[in-house]
Design brief:
alpha/beta, FAR, seven-stranded parallel beta sheet, membrane, oxidoreductase, binds NADP nicotinamide-adenine-dinucleotide phosphate, transmembrane helix, two-stranded parallel sheet
């Protein structure tokens, strides 16, 4: 059966549908698979009820193409008001009964992706949340497949990561007990760099036991970047990790990054990721329908680009610079200039010189003019964000993705066309250009009409930047000369 046929008239339950991956997944399922209904778990937040949040999400531009192709797509969406971390997801009995009687496919994508979340919250959302969704899925009468979205970095203390379940230093049960005793204990992380990857590893460990004998798989994508082509090239949701770095460099705000330029990064476009995720569900359903016992174990699919199309941070950033020279943002505050080094001491010194001292001058001038001073605060936050991803920028991993490659090989030509996720001959230069233009449009809200002004401003920033360097060298030279004399 083709992928679209597998989903035809089926009912899908998606958690995390208001997030980056969840939105694209929902859109693609509605556009390319003739599903009967998609039930999306949405929580009320900041006083906005779940129903309103779901309606607002479906009005966003990411659904414009779908709206054009199928104006009534909203009728296929059922909003389930709930929180993954609450018992029985905190959903009404009526919704619970409906899910049990109707759902065929579960995509569990909801999580906290904040790297440095406190351990108690990360445990509640990423571990207890997963247990809660699994418990509900176990009751579903017509469940054909369950895919848990993990991360390629869940076992990041290892440099080589295979598509297997690895042992974890503590079980979920023991961790929860520890947290009950000592609320925010961090000593449990061992070699994991943060609570996010640690709790994702523990959630995978729960899936490995598959106590409820579910038709289940684990999907491990690496760093998810903007859309390559669907529903629109360059689409992105918000300023997460990679986008944050590229945007801050282009604005001339980020001038020193702890990074090894010769290390491989591993980026996958969001639309490819959603296609791979849907294909993993298709494979999961087929595996379990096949009936043989050996296929009835949870399987892991690593979704990475590095095997077929490796790219180094240095090459990726060169492409960012090349595109920046063609289309700099009008909002840039300084000419593009950034120092990269794996030496943390050096980077901290450069941060003082290139971030904090100029920021202090700008703040001082703001205070004198009776305005709010915000640059030092901004740099404190920015450096904190970059520090939280430093482990990713200075290391590289060898990911085995044999299961995903086998899955790709199994897809028919027709399915490949609709659910493309392969990386043969992937053009990183063109993808990086798409990302830079996407940031310009979606994050900075600048369209191409401002290009003449942006280029003219950029020329001025270029001269100002070089003049400043000349001035600093001159002053240092003069000081040295005076000292020697
Ligand atoms: N982004 C990446 O680069 C990346 C890479 C590898 C793996 N992943 C995995 O992909 C999945 C999705 O990530 P993402 O980038 O889409 O993250 P995201 O944009 O932060 O979305 C997270 C989603 O989870 C929902 N959620 C969080 N806590 C919830 C709760 N208590 N109850 C109900 N819903 C809750 C959020 O809902 P609200 O809107 O209500 O907050 C949101 O819809 C995650 O499992 C993540 O580990 C992401």
């Amino acid at each position: 059966m083709s992928i679209a046929d597998t989903f035809r008239n089926g009912t899908v339950f998606v958690t995390g549908s208001t997030g980056f991956l969840g939105k694209i997944l929902t859109e693609k399922l509605l556009r390319s698979c003739d599903v009967k209904c998609i039930a999306i778990l949405v929580r009320g937040k900041y006083g906005v009820p779940a129903s309103q949040r779901a309606a607002d999400t479906l009005k966003q531009s990411i659904f414009d193409r779908l709206r054009f192709e199928n104006p009534n797509f909203v009728t296929k969406i059922k909003t389930i008001d709930g929180h993954i971390d609450k018992q029985s997801l905190g959903i009404s009995t009526e919704d619970c009964d409906w899910l049990i009687k109707n759902v065929n496919f579960v995509f569990h994508s909801a999580a906290t992706v904040k790297f440095n979340e406190t351990i108690d919250i990360a445990t509640k959302l990423n571990i207890q949340g997963t247990e809660n969704v699994l418990e509900l899925a176990a009751k579903m009468n017509y469940l054909k497949g369950f895919v848990y979205v993990s991360t390629a970095y869940s076992n990041c203390p290892r440099s080589e990561i295979k598509e297997v379940f690895y042992d974890v230093p503590i079980s979920a049960k023991e961790l929860k007990k520890l947290i009950e005793i000592d609320g925010k204990t961090r000593n449990v992380l061992e070699d994991w760099p943060n609570t996010y990857t640690f709790t994702k590893a523990l959630a995978e460990n729960i899936i490995s036991t598959n106590e409820n004998q579910l038709p289940i798989s684990v999907f491990r994508p690496s760093i998810i970047g903007c859309a390559q082509s669907e529903p629109e090239p360059g689409w992105m949701n918000s300023m997460q990790g990679l986008v944050y770095i590229v945007n801050s460099i282009m604005l001339g705000l980020l001038r020193a990054i702890p990074m090894s330029m010769d290390k491989k990064t591993d980026i996958v476009p969001i639309d490819y990721t959603a296609n791979a995720l849907i294909s993993v569900m298709w494979d999961t359903v087929n595996r379990y329908q096949d009936g043989s016992e050996k296929n009835k174990k949870p399987k892991i699919y690593s979704y990475v680009s590095g095997f077929d199309s490796p790219v180094h941070w240095g090459t990726f950033l060169n492409y960012v610079y090349e595109t920046y020279y063609q289309a700099p943002p009008l909002q840039s505050v300084w000419y593009i200039f950034c120092i990269y080094s794996a030496n943390s001491w050096f980077i901290n010194f450069m941060r003082l010189l290139l971030h904090r001292i100029p920021a202090a001058f700008v703040d001082l001038s703001s205070i004198i003019r009776g305005k709010n001073s915000k640059m030092l605060k901004m740099y404190k936050k920015q450096d904190g964000i970059i520090d939280s991803i430093e482990w990713m920028l200075k290391n590289e991993w060898k990911f085995d993705n044999s299961n995903t490659r086998k899955l790709w090989a199994q897809l028919s030509q027709e399915d490949r066309k609709t659910f493309w996720f392969g990386f043969e001959d992937f053009d990183w230069k063109s993808y990086t250009q798409t990302m830079v233009y996407g940031i310009r449009k979606i994050i900075l809200h600048e369209d191409l009409h401002n290009m003449t002004r942006a280029l003219s401003k950029n020329r001025k920033l270029f001269w100002l930047h070089h003049f400043s360097i000349f001035l600093i060298i001159y002053i240092v030279f003069q000081l040295c000369w005076t000292f020697v004399m």
